[in-house]
Structures are given as structure tokens and as C-alpha cells.
Amino acid sequence: MLKKEVKELQILKLSSDAYNKSQEFATCLEKLLNNELQEIEDWAGKLHGNILRIAGNLHLAANV
């Protein structure tokens, strides 16, 4: 179990390159939701945000 004491709120911001790649992924995913991913639309619709949250948590675990 990971236990780290966080003393203050931290806001993570993507670099402009990471933001652009994130938006490209979201756009691609959105197009797939109406076709190939229609059967798992509820899950797939949350994929982009979940990936960003997991990446943020991994970053904090490694760098805080």
C-alpha cells in the first residue's frame, strides 16, 4: 500500500505537447465510440480521463 503525506494541494498541468497528444487521443476515441467501441461505450467514454488520472497519480508517486 502506498502511503504518502501530502501537505498541500498540487495541481498538475500537461505540457503543451502532452496536451496536444491527449486531445488527439480524445478525438480519435470519440470517433470510435459510435462504431467499434459502441458495445463498451460507457467504459470507453471514461478511458481518456482515467488514463490522465492514473498518469497523474504515477507522477506524484514517483516525484513527491
Describe this structure in words.
The chain has 64 residues and is an all-alpha fold. It has three helices and no strands.
Give a quick set of tags describing it.
mainly alpha, 3 helices
Round the Cα radius of gyration to an integer and report it.
15 Å
Mean pLDDT: 90
Order of helices and strands: HHH
Strand content: under 5%
Query: What is the overall shape?
Result: elongated
Helix content: 55-70%
Structural class: mainly alpha
- Output the number of helix runs: 3
Question: Low-confidence parts lasting 5 or more residues at pLDDT below 50?
Answer: none
| Total number of beta strands | 0
Give the gist of this structure.
The chain is mainly alpha-helical and 64 residues long. It contains three helices and no strands.
